[in-house]
Amino acid sequence: MHSLKAGSRVVGTKQTLRALEKTKAAEVYVAKDAQQQVTFRVLEMAKEQGIPVVYLETMEELAKACDVEVKTATAALIK
């Protein structure tokens, strides 16, 4: 999780999906308490591309890991 703060990343489902579409995501982070309809496509694309998924307990925890103030459902580490 240290790599989320230090590395190049995108935060939020829309940005994460964009990174996956452009095959630029190296690792995907998903909050377990996020709505399934929000995370479903991200998880599907990550699985299709063989990208590792790291689960965090809450959206608040993921936001803190990304060093942002707004809760977030997904984030991605960029290659």
UniProtKB/TrEMBL annotation:
Keywords: Ribonucleoprotein, Ribosomal protein. The keyword Ribonucleoprotein applies. Residues 4-76 form the Ribosomal protein eL8/eL30/eS12/Gadd45 domain. One of its GO terms (cellular component) is ribosome. This is 50S ribosomal protein L7Ae-like protein. InterPro entries: Ribosomal_eL30-like_sf, Ribosomal_eL8/eL30/eS12/Gad45.
